[in-house]
Recover the amino acids of this structure.
């Protein structure tokens, strides 16, 4: 028995030694030198504990890599990889060492060098350290307190992969020729260099360019002293500060985090999208803050030479003034790649002039010349002296502008914004200037004459009303409305005196009639009902909001009619009426194949993006639903009904209201319950819309024999079980694109997450719909646990009034 006990004691002691050895082999260290290499299983941790260097195997790969990742977050996010082109097999034993010649080497089990970092010099005691910035450096161990870049013999920040960390420079060291740029991973499982690169283009005035192989995909535009011309949304913010440096020694872009507790970086993903990601503790994942590419007009050279792109126009592309399509047939067919050519050749110094374009993304500067000290007047004179100069602009827009940027021979990749762009002066022949002056004179005369007649008519009209009835309820300022005023007799004639035969339907505002004006134009007339739950304030709000908005995916408001007892809005007529009449109807839904549905989804997304970001006002619609999406003859979606919309000023993005308005089934939880609305409220409604379009089922009123969830809950259950395709409307038939449908459902679930912070912004949604990139995993949707949305927030402190399941409601809460 004693012998048996001794045997077990020896066995336990042997196991203890093995475990201790394994534990010791997985320890961390603070530096690597010639006598202390780092072996696979050990890690090097930065002094502040933010980053860790070690060996890892990505995703489903069987390869082994040396990399750096964030230390303090649960999701392993690799920010740098050493041996991208030379992976280790998973069974090999590898180590990282620093040689006496200050070379950092990755060696395999047989001692073969797999990867090496050749330093710029040699010191007596070289050591490799990982800084808390995520920068791996080689320096002299004798200079422990010196961590300035000048002391580094080599640093990983000079050799970035797919991520730009704070403090990392993207650009060129002019003295050494070192060029730092990002290269995407091949896939999420393969860190080898992919097809996409993001770097500075030094031809002409430097600008960041995203390329696939050697073909330009996207430009940020040139730096204008405040930001990049092609990124008007890159503005001062509380998360990070950015800088562009250009001098005789260096040209680079960098940024720094203003709040050190925030984790954020820029990522070039495997699908060619440049993203800014921020870590969310609440979501326990990376949340997209913004993307470089925001819409289709960011596609490089979409409209060819001397063409301009405006996402608010349909089609997006048009020729600059004084130019015409080079290939008219292709142009009219939607192929704009050949661009435009001059109608009249330039006469050089014999009367050429310049037409001013405002709010533009400046053209490709690889065809440019620049001077940092010239004034704008000197720049114009310089351009006039060069017969090859086709345009000029201010180089630096700060403090009234300074510097000169000139384009030679070619203007390409020019984009028009609604606001926040720059001025560009395009050279044209004198004859085009005369045409412009003539048109301007005629237009000015017409406007003055028309305005005089309108003002006179309005004054006379109101004088008669006040003299007859005293103060009139609901009077409107025509200047404030900024819309043509239709006479009520004209509208009555167009609608056959508001005949029931012309009635298209009725909503919360009142009845809607089809009409035809004397010139043959078909119109839709929304007539404010005396019993309407939406009154004169909503009428006025809709006019003020939509009169200032122009986009192909927003319904066009033609004018209004204000009579003695009437308030009416006149819209363009949508021959296919509203989306709900198709997707919720068993017969009509058969005409909506998947391709049509997906184009409708993308069109709605572009319309919301315009409201949130690209319009003159930042608009929250607050009542996005299927019945407020109208369809034209080509089934293009157009967002309508802005009576409940609200605008934000400046950088505001959230507000609180005591009067909750919207439609059950589409309202976000934070809005329905707490009265908080933001851009993310519309994102939630969009997600509901996408699920309804895919499934052909309403969110509110949805029933299923197996559970009591609404449509959101049903979609969430199917997603978790890998059965999302069961959600698809069977009437889509054989037109289904499975991967596209799964992507649409995935994006919708991201949009309807409970927390607004977790939901993506519409710029991200548009990019996700137009690409095949990896998507983050969604969390549980809002209103997931309950059967009926109304039941979920019928709290005793609130008084509710509503008409039916599918009409807009108003909830007034005591606060």
């Amino acid at each position: 028995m004693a012998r048996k006990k001794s045997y077990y004691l020896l066995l336990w002691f042997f196991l203890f030694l093995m475990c201790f050895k394994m534990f010791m082999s997985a320890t961390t260290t603070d530096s690597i030198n010639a006598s202390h290499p780092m072996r696979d299983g050990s890690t090097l941790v930065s002094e502040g504990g933010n980053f860790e260097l070690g060996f890892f195997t990505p995703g489903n790969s069987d390869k082994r890599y040396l990399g750096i990742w964030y230390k303090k977050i649960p999701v392993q996010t690799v920010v740098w990889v050493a041996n991208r082109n030379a992976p280790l097999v998973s069974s090999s034993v590898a180590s990282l060492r620093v040689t006496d010649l200050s070379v950092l080497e990755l060696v395999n089990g047989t001692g073969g060098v797999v990867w090496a970092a050749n330093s710029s010099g040699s010191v007596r005691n070289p050591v490799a350290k990982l800084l808390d910035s995520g920068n791996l450096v080689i320096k002299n161990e004798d200079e422990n307190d010196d961590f300035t870049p000048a002391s580094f013999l080599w640093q990983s920040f000079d050799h970035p992969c797919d991520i730009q960390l704070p403090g990392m420079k993207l650009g060129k060291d002019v003295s050494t020729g070192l060029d730092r740029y990002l290269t995407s991973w091949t896939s999420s499982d393969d860190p080898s260099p992919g097809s996409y690169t993001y770097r500075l283009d030094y031809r002409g005035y430097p600008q960041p360019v995203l390329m696939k192989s050697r073909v330009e995909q996207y430009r940020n535009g040139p730096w204008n002293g405040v930001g990049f011309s092609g990124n008007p949304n890159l503005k001062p913010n509380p998360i990070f500060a950015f800088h562009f440096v250009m001098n005789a020694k260096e040209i680079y872009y960098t940024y720094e985090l203003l709040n050190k507790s925030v984790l954020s970086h820029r990522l070039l993903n495997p699908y060619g999208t440049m993203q800014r990601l921020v870590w969310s503790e609440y979501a326990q994942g990376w949340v997209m803050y913004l993307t470089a590419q925001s819409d289709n007009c960011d596609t490089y050279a979409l409209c060819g030479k001397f063409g301009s792109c405006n996402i608010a126009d349909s089609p997006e592309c048009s020729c600059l003034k004084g130019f015409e399509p080079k290939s008219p047939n292709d142009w009219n067919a939607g192929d704009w790649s050949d661009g435009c050519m001059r109608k009249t050749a330039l006469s050089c110094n014999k009367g050429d002039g310049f037409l001013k374009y405002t709010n533009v993304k400046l053209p490709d500067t690889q065809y440019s010349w620049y001077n940092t000290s010239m004034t704008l007047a000197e720049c114009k004179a310089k351009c006039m002296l060069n017969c090859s100069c086709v345009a000029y602009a201010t180089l630096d827009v700060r403090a009234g502008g300074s510097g000169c940027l000139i384009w030679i021979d070619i203007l390409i990749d020019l984009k028009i914004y609604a606001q926040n762009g720059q001025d560009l002066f395009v050279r044209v022949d004198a004859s085009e200037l005369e045409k412009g002056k003539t048109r301007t004179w005629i237009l000015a005369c017409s406007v003055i004459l028309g305005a005089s007649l309108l003002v006179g008519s309005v004054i006379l009209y109101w004088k008669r009303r006040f003299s007859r009835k005293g103060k009139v309820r609901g009077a409107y300022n025509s200047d404030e409305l900024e819309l043509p005023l239709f006479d009520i007799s004209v509208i009555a004639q167009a609608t056959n005196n508001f005949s029931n035969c012309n009635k298209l339907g009725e909503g919360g505002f009142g009845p809607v009639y089809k009409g035809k004006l004397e010139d043959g134009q078909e119109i839709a007339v929304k007539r404010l009902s005396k019993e309407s739950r939406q009154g004169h304030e909503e009428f006025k709000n809709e006019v003020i909001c939509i009169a200032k908005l122009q986009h192909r995916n927003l319904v066009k408001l033609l004018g209004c009619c204000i009579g003695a007892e009437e308030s009416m809005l006149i819209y363009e007529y949508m021959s296919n009426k509203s989306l709900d009449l198709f997707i919720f109807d068993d017969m009509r839904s058969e005409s909506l194949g998947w391709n049509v549905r997906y184009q409708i989804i993308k069109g709605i997304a572009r319309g919301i993006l315009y409201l949130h970001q690209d319009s003159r006002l930042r608009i929250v619609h607050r009542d996005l639903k299927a019945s407020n999406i109208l369809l034209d003859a080509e089934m293009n979606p157009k967002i309508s009904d802005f009576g409940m919309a609200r605008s934000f000023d400046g950088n505001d993005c959230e507000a609180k209201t005591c009067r909750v308005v919207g439609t059950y089934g589409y309202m976000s939880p934070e809005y329905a319950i707490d009265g908080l609305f933001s851009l993310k409220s519309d994102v939630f409604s969009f997600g509901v819309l996408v699920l309804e379009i895919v499934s052909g089922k309403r969110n509110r009123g949805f029933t299923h024999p197996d559970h009591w969830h609404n449509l959101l809950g049903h979609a969430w259950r199917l997603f978790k079980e890998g059965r999302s395709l069961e959600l698809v409307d069977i009437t889509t038939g054989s037109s289904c694109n499975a991967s596209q449908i799964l992507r649409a459902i995935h994006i919708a679930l991201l949009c309807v997450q409970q927390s607004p912070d977790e939901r993506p912004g519409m710029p991200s949604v548009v990019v996700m719909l137009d690409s095949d990139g990896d998507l983050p995993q969604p969390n549980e949707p809002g209103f997931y646990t309950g059967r009926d949305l109304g039941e979920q927030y019928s709290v005793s402190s609130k008084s509710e009034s509503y008409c039916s399941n599918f009409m807009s409601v108003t909830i007034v809460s005591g606060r």
Confidence is low (pLDDT under 50) at residues 16-26, 461-481, 655-660, 786-815. The first strand starts at residue 28 and ends at 29. DSSP finds 15 helices and 50 strands in the chain. The chain has four domains: 23-159, 297-428, 473-572, 580-813.
